[in-house]
Amino acid sequence: MRLVEREPTLDHLQSLLREAADGQGRLVLLEGEAGAGKSSLAAAFARAVPADTRVLSGACENFGTAEPLGPWRDIAREARWALALAPASGRNWISLFSEMLDLLTAGRRPTLLLIEDIHWADDATLNLIRYIGRRIRSACLLLLVTARNDDTAGQTRLRRLFADIPPAHWLRLDVPPLSRAAVLELAGSAGLDGEAIFSATGGNAYFVSELVEAAGRQPAGDGGRLPASIRDAVLARADALSEPERQALRAASTSPDGFAPELIETICGRPARPALEACAASGLLVPAGELFAFRHEIARQAIEQSLPPLGRRAMNAKALAYFRRSGDASMARMVHHAHEAQDVAAILELAPKAAAEAGRLGAHRQAMRHYELALAHAASLCDAERAGLYEGYAFECHLTGQMERAIAAQTSALALYRALGDIRHVGDNMRWLSRLSYLAGDRKGADAFGRQAVDLLEQAANPAEPGPAEPAHAEPAHAELAMAYSNLSQLAMLAGDAETATRHGERAIALVAKQDIARPEVLCHALNNVGTAICWREPQRARRTLDRALAIALEHGFQEHAARAFTNRAWVEIRLHAADAAEAVLARGIAYCIEHDLDTWRDYMRGELAELLTELGRWDEAEAAAEAVVDNRNSPALCRYPSLVALATLRTRRGGNADELMQEMAAFLQNAFEFPRLAAHAALVAERAWLGLAGREQALAALRQAAALCRDDAAGSMLGFWAHMTGEAGLAQGGENADAAVAAMRRGRWQEAADIWTGRRAPYYAALALLDGDSDALYRALAALEALGATTVIAHVKETIRKRGGRLPARGPRPTTQANAAGLTIREMDVLRLIDEGRSNAEIGALLFVSAKTVDHHISAILAKLNARSRGQAAAEGRRLGLLG
Predict the structure, then answer these.
(1) Is 90 exceeded by the pLDDT of residue 68?
(2) Cβ contacts of residue 339 below 8 Å, gap of 6+?
């Protein structure tokens, strides 16, 4: 059936392809309901591209569990690329993405890359699309993907995918249903009742074509009667085929992917190519090179659902046998046929292999589903085999943030190993439960499992002689014990106990060296902990140690360890007020987690980014980063916490409602009682008390509680800051390692404190430091707060100014500020003069040697003082007041 109402979209795609040919590539999402005509539109566009354009295509298939990198395998075959799409465990498989992008962009040849049905895509495929999408703007590449727009889990994943790609790099084109007029036109050309067809289909292009063509095939005198359903229309088309052709079509319906005639010959027991060609002539199948495929998934499902259950099982069993012999199918496809054939032995053999392959490729959700399928049929396995499946499933669940499932699976594995008397595995599972409990927000459980793991593994690592429950041939558990020591190091580090963290971490490192343990992930884990723990006392050594941990993780493809190293490295830079370094590490780390489908660590680092941006005064950006995590209720409690702190802080300062966020933070702290998180909460409660939003006694109690756990003066700097602001300076840390800005405030050197905060690019704290100063300092603080939009704080400061009204006029503003009627500072007068000259913000910044952000702050203060709504009004008011010559 000819295309109608698609010309504007085709024209738009042609213009985008011309831009791509000029080196301005784009990712285009072609979206519509099932049967809307997305594939027909994409195919029509692909046929109409210029002759010098390379066209490559692949498709995602509706397997029970998607094949990792399925469409990219199609593309590699079509392009005849020798591309290894199943990297070994130790390989950094991101190199595959780089290799694919290099192949797509080699020679700057204009390329149209079409991937269909990405709502069925596996995680690795989405990661590769994400990788290319983030780099496509400088490539001669147009990446066109099609997807359904129904409200499904697939759509949720697509929203996350496109949220991680810069908006300028992609766009969405909707493929709407056909209009009533278009349906009437198509039906009328065939002499059919267009109103009836429009009523039956709602304008769905595939349904319209099926009904029009079905009616057209009916014998004369049938009156153009419509089939009762689309399924009937598809089956009616199949009924027109001969019996051998229908048998071939039924066999083909078991394959969501493209299939070779040899597969159908195996299932049917006779030559199949003539029958398949007849099916293609009828419009049900389409040839795809040496393969065939259904014209539409709806048609395949209609045929498949018409199969008798026993016949469907038998066909899938034959398909599985064919692929076992040929070796020409992915693990995911063989698992699909094993599941449909209800072949339990094949499921138990193939599903764990498919899970391992998916995990290596970063398709962690697909790995989870393969493990779930295997576990559903695992009753016949021995306890050790079932325990191994539970362990694999728990690991994949934890990587995707599904902590409840991970803990349940790890607990099942632990019970099985206990029944076997396998102390080494019992101890290692306890260590894992310690980690999972921590991520779920259960600090007490984490500590308990961690201690039990070390106790058991010390026994297993140094057995005097085999006990009654321990096999005589059991290997000493040195590697597991080293990891258990490192786990205790991590727990201590997270609690702010640097001494204990360093002791356990170095114990783990020493054991790795002494026993020559060939487990680089253990060394990586321990270095990560030690490097973070020593950041206050030895910052340069901390950076070197964390960089070494990150290098090991990246070299060996340890995705979670790499994410931890990025997270901890950023945390260190934030605490050391190295804003540029922190932002650079977070950019790398978040991109790494996005591309590797590590939602847990991505969310934690987004919280760190929100924290950093809040300190830097980039509050709109901070709010967006925090809300992206807080709005995702599936994010683990620990990973939500930094974003909760940032968002509650911003709402507190801006006049929003932070009560619900504060309640969630308090609930988290009931089970995760440790210094870093407790200190962040105590500082925020104190700030709210200072603003009159919380009780002073509650704030002081929170500050004292956190201060009692503080092991390092520098670590407690913000406790000291807010202790000073609330008038409880005795709580401030005052040792030799105390924060310089807080120490200056305690000594009454408010300008020095403000200068330190300004040097750290922390305008909010610089403004608060000025509140200890004279009247000019108060007005400067007020201007800075107005530039930040700190509504609640502005009101509080104005009230402070009013309360000090008896003293302020006596001291008055400084002469430099008093020199004009509006109270502008000398720098603000400089900015106002340049505004009057018509200078842009960038020009003003260049002339005054300040950043554009500083110019924005000055302009906001000028507008507030002159009661002006625009730069032009400010200049006019300045002239009226005689400030400008």
Answers:
(1) no
(2) 64, 347, 373
